[in-house]
Specification:
The structure is a single chain. The protein is mainly alpha-helical. It folds into two domains: 59 residues; 91 residues, Aconitase, domain 4, CATH 3.20.19. Helices cover 50% and strands 9% of the residues. The longest helix has 34 residues. The relative contact order is 0.08.
Length: 163
């Protein structure tokens, strides 16, 4: 600790602590304020907390922990207008289907479920019949999902990963 607070490292250490403090304050504010705003817009408490969790996980630059946490909630698929490339890839790596469907937010309301066809790149709201089309998932990503994720795929088809 003494070394971190010495003249040579003091500026870096204080900057890092300040950055972490600001990030923590931002995430705390987001996770307490945003659900109340969404509730005022008619989205139930559970829906608003789920939305806030997804947004908060998205702030982690798509780290695998975010996709693992989403998968652990029992979500069957993540459908969105767009994803960062890292988040999209990490979804498939942990065995969580994901689909980019421009216009998807126009065909759903709070509590709706979607029927998703990754191979065709479509999402349909069974309650309304509304459908949106996006980009079909790459066959390699589909194989990864079928295997249960990247590690399971590597175990099943080790020849794919040899030099």
């Amino acid at each position: 600790m003494r070394l971190l607070l010495s003249g040579r490292y003091l500026r870096f250490t204080v900057s890092l602590w300040l950055m972490e403090l600001c990030a923590g304050a931002f995430l705390y504010g987001l996770s307490t304020w945003l659900p109340s705003v969404l509730e005022q817009k008619g989205i139930g408490l559970l829906g608003s907390l789920t939305y806030t969790a997804v947004i908060t996980f998205g702030q982690s630059s798509g780290r695998a922990i975010a996709t693992r946490a989403l998968r652990a909630t029992g979500i069957g698929c993540v459908a969105a207008e767009t994803f960062t490339r890292t988040f999209y890839r990490n979804c498939f790596e942990v065995g969580l289907p994901a689909i980019e469907v421009p216009g998807v937010k126009e065909i759903v309301t709070a509590g709706d479920r979607l029927r998703v066809d990754l191979a065709a790149g479509t999402a349909t709201n069974p309650a309304t019949g509304a459908t949106c089309s996006g980009t079909p998932a790459d066959p390699f990503l589909m194989d990864m999902l079928d295997a249960g994720g990247l590690i399971a795929l590597a175990r099943r088809h080790s020849e794919l990963f040899r030099g």
